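wait is this the right file?? whatever heres the structure
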């Protein structure tokens, strides 16, 4: 059987604290998305989601990208990248116009979006997304599409996802150094929600918790879209560091013990299971610990930051996890017993969600750690409505300025 004919190509680059993941995918005429090549590289030069060494990140991105290109047999020209630093936040902007009880045309909705942009922009923040969540007619909320209706007042509620400009610019600079064009910077929670949640879950309402190596991103979904986002500087690396400190072992050994033998839920048998932690003890033999000792360190850290997740959810207006299903993703959630532990702490229900929506993904990359990369591909294939200013808008605005002002800008950039 001949391979499917690819009509559109997409490349996702997920730059995280622990790993850099690259996914090349192609879409066929029937809309099916096929994984064509993957690349995975240990991340260097990133701390807590922020680029701190552009050259190191550039080198890691190049290696992961070249690996994916060799598998796919193509050369990548443009990419979609994710951003998930702890400066990521969201807010809601409401804009209303008088309309004189006339029938609303699609052009009127577009003009409303254009005027709402002015309220969205902020000089000190990078706007990643500005998505209309619902429309308002004469004070009535929750309208999906106002076209064809009559009203005296027409308004729109816009959910804005933004971040500090500096970290976003550093990420863009590091990835561009690998000689690729960046089509869009996507909030990691926006992408992860597409690959980890079903359409019904996003519509009915769910809380998605992505626990990575050093950051935990929390997103609320309702009405089919992301409606709230929060970030906490805590993750799996904190657990690993605690194990290193407690037992005085190498970090690589601690990471292995956590991933292979650690658990968020203890059992009586843990006191009998002996684990070799490497090195040499005073008696000349390799020192050992029990699985119960290892899990006690893990639980101590989880007991510290998982309740904070519940506090953030309540602060985001979730109404308490008991009223909303909690879905877990991210590499740290691969820890044994994690879903049961989170459910016991937060209440309600909690489950793991592996990435879906793409065929042909290697089994080794169907893990929670690849959820954002898969989501970036899904976002690129079917981008949601977004009214934020784009680079094309900026270029058009600059061309409309007087020639002397454009020349002054060019001269100032050259200084």
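ok assuming it is, sequence goes like this
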């Amino acid at each position: 059987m001949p391979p499917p004919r690819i009509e559109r190509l997409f490349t996702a680059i997920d730059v995280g604290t622990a790993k850099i993941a690259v996914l090349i995918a192609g879409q066929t005429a029937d809309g099916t998305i096929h994984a064509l090549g993957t690349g995975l590289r240990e991340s260097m030069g990133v701390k807590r989601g922020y680029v701190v060494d552009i050259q190191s990140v550039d080198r890691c991105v190049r290696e992961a990208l070249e690996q994916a290109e060799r598998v796919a047999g193509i050369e990548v020209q443009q990419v979609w990248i994710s951003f998930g630093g702890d400066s990521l936040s969201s807010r809601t902007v409401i804009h209303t116009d008088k309309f004189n009880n006339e029938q609303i045309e699609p052009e009127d909705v577009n003009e409303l979006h254009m005027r709402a942009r002015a309220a969205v922009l902020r000089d000190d923040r990078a706007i990643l997304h500005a998505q209309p969540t619902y429309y308002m007619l004469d004070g009535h909320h929750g309208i999906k599409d106002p076209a064809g209706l009559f009203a005296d007042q027409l308004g729109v509620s816009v959910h804005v996802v933004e971040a500090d400009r500096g970290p976003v610019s550093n990420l863009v600079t590091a990835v561009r150094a690998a000689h690729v064009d960046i089509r869009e910077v996507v909030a990691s929670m926006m992408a992860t929600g597409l690959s980890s949640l079903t359409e019904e879950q996003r519509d009915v309402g769910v809380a998605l918790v992505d626990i990575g190596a050093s950051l935990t991103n929390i997103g609320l979904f309702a009405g089919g879209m992301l409606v709230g986002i929060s970030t906490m500087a805590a993750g799996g690396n904190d657990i690993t560091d605690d194990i290193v400190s407690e037992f005085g072992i190498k970090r690589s050994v601690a990471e292995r013990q956590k991933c292979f033998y650690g658990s968020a839920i203890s059992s009586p048998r843990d006191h009998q299971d002996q684990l070799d932690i490497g090195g040499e003890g005073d008696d000349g033999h390799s020192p050992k610990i029990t699985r119960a000792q290892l899990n006690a360190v893990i639980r101590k850290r989880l007991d510290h930051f998982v309740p904070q997740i519940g506090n953030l959810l309540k602060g985001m207006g979730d109404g308490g996890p008991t009223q909303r299903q909690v879905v877990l993703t991210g590499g740290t959630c691969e820890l044994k017993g994690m879903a049961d532990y989170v459910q016991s702490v937060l209440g309600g229900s909690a489950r793991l969600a592996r990435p879906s929506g793409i065929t042909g993904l290697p089994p080794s990359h169907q893990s929670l750690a690849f959820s954002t990369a898969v989501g970036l591909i899904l976002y690129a294939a079917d981008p949601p409505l977004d009214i934020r200013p784009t680079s094309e808008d900026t270029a058009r605005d600059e061309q409309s300025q007087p020639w002397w002002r454009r020349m002054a800008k060019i001269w100032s950039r050259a200084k």
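Residues 394-415 have pLDDT under 50 and may be disordered. so i think its the right one actually
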